[in-house]
Design goal:
- The chain has 277 residues and is mostly helical.
- The protein has one domain (77-276): MetI-like (MetI-like fold).
- It has helices at 6-53, 64-75, 78-111, 113-126, 135-142, 146-170, 174-182, 187-224, 230-239, 243-271.
- α5 packs across α6.
């Protein structure tokens, strides 16, 4: 009769522990993925059934199949692509105009008490102002062209990125900054070799929030101050009661958000590979 020693049993059970953990992790991951896919599919099916059966008014809530058909037809023509291209260009240009200076000033505010003392009261006073409220002012300054739209987007992005960047620098362990100063690190090295990598998680969070706000602002700006773009498409479709076309604009806006979220996730994996572990 074969007798297994207690030591052998312990070793065998120890080898199975990592396998069990891996299996549970994979099960949780697959379950989460299944639920993430199933929840919107179930919601769309319920919407389709309610619209087809008359539970909800199809004039205001057309079935998703009809919206999808209108989207496919729109993508087959030049008009929808024109609105998409114009809105994307406005978002990207406004985001860059507001985001890049915000990162630089946020690093300066986090590193320098003097800069922080100068800028913090201004930020506290102007940050709560609704960004759409300054659109008439920018139209007076820059006219009805693209510049006013870029500047509204830039201001909306600027404050969020600035506050997050400054908070990220101040969250860095002060020992790292003191070591850099002790070894004679110059301003450029303190900015880009110490403060920027240390505050990078906060900066990326601020950029993601800024992009979300930019999507909200661009649609609102194009409602009233534009004759093109996705916001204009939504507003014009509502005015002429093309409800399915209006939903197409909403779907495209959601796809913008989904695409930018994936882009920032990719950027996060590239710039912070240690977070994958």
């Amino acid at each position: 009769m074969k007798v297994t020693s207690p030591i052998g049993q312990v070793e065998a059970s120890a080898t199975h522990v990592p396998e069990l953990k891996t299996q549970r992790r994979e099960l949780r991951r697959s379950t989460g993925l299944t639920l993430s896919i199933a929840s919107p599919v179930v919601l769309l099916l319920l919407w389709e059934l309610c619209s087809r059966s008359g539970v909800v008014d199809a004039r205001f809530f057309p079935p998703p199949s009809g919206v999808l058909l209108a989207l496919v037809q729109g993508l087959g023509g030049a008009e929808l692509w024109g609105h998409i291209g114009i809105s994307l260009s406005r978002i990207v240009i406004g985001f860059l105009i507001g985001g890049i200076p915000a990162v630089l000033l946020g690093l300066a505010m986090g590193l320098s008490p003097v800069v922080r003392a100068i800028l913090q009261p201004l930020v506290n006073a102007t940050f709560p102002i609704p960004k759409l409220a300054i659109l008439p002012l920018f139209i007076l300054i820059f006219g009805l062209g693209e510049a006013s739209k870029y500047m509204v987007l830039a201001v909306a992005v600027f404050f969020i990125v600035l506050v997050n960047t400054a908070a990220g620098v101040r969250a860095i362990d002060r020992t790292q900054l003191e070591v850099g100063s002790s070894f004679g690190a110059g301003t450029r090295m303190m900015f880009f070799d110490i403060a920027l990598p240390g505050a990078l998680p906060f900066i990326l969070s601020g950029l993601k929030l800024g992009m979300n706000v930019a999507l909200l602002v661009i649609v609102a700006v194009e409602f009233t101050g534009a004759s093109s773009g996705i916001g204009y498409l939504i507003w014009n479709s509502w005015q002429v009661f093309k409800v399915e076309q209006m939903y197409v604009g909403l779907v495209v806006t959601a796809l913008f958000g989904f695409g930018f979220a994936g882009l920032f996730a990719l950027l996060e994996r590239l710039l912070m590979p240690w977070k994958r572990h």
